[in-house]
Amino acid sequence: MSWYARQENWKAQSEDARNEADVDYARVIHSASFRRLQGKTQILNLGDSDFYRTRLTHSLEVAQIAGGIVRQLRQDFPDHAAVEHLPDHSLIQVIGVTHDLGHPPFGHGGEVALNYCMRAAGGFEGNGQTLRILSRLESFSAAAGANLMRRTLLGVLKYPVPFSQAFNPACAPKLSASPTAISIIDRAASKPPKCYLDSEASVVRWILAPLSSADREAFTAIRTQVGKHHKAVHKSFDCSIMDLADDIAFGVHDLEDALTLRLMREADFRRLVPEARCGSFLDHLKARYPEESGNNVYERLIDTLFREGGERKRCIGRMVHHLITHIRIDTLEEFEEPLLRFRASMAEGPAIFLSALKEAVYATVIQSASVQQLEFKGQKMVISVFEALASEPRALLAPEHLARVEKGEEVGRVICDYIAGMTDGALLKAYDRLFSPRMGSVFDQL
Fold this sequence. Notes:
This protein is mainly alpha-helical. It has 23 helices and four strands.
């Protein structure tokens, strides 16, 4: 069983110069799911500015960084046994651009809302929805979605445990007990576990079929937690590269958005990213650019980041370079399969620096009242549209979605797929059409 096999037989035309990974990349880039990422929130609300990242531009940046990591590993570890198992450029690119395909409108707020809506029907999780889109919902094949290679899907399988095993009943979604006049979900309790959806269990079995029984058992292990959802322990070599690229893009590029839009103050940066946590990057700047650093490299860094113009952009580029060039290859001796045996990780000093950047973005931007209020509103709209459609699916669902229900698919999962695929704007229009008295027309496309 080849890692380059597909669920459904497909053979390129004889004159096609592309390799298998090129085909997968083309299928994702040309998919409707990928195009819709341009209208989905990354962190900041769409339409407030033409500068900051959307899900689409974030995904492109993750793919580019992941490609840079692979090249760096080939250069830095030419004699390592893992080098021959590194993904080629097209393969790591397709895993990068695909990684957020399943995220719904309104970012993680929409994800929490859909998990609440699906609380009695198998739940919802964005990474799990990505696998569902690629293996079932896209239309490049009869019944296998985009019909991508097994290795591509392994790289996308970020959490190789099903919802039913990762879910902790102690953390079941519920309504908040605090309001008395309106119903509001308990957002903390309604967060989903990190997992794939049980509806894709057969796909995961197919993905993992080449593994020995010992490797399969070890790879799908979970770490149980008291009072929290349980966690997957492992990810594949390719997925570990993509995951590091995702962290770098979030920590550095979303930091750039926050600084440019003045959402992070200098005092916030000093508090959350103190000099002690910047040690590896400050040493890098001092060694590489001694003429720029002066006597206090940390003060020079802050001055550069909080000053408008090209110097900040160059500093952002240097951060990305520093992090990419400090990634190593770990070996997990318990695995026989090379795609599981090897794992990309970041050296300790740069990892501390990146962690500080991510925490700063989370604390000052994601957790800010301005972002949380919009997330709250988005969640309310997602739940309202879901519950309206679920109340009378035969009357309210568009024909193509109702046809799936009539073929025997669960109505909740069909509605969930429909809403998860919407852009922020499409969800807003659906909400207005259902609930706003002066909005909507019989000529609207559903």
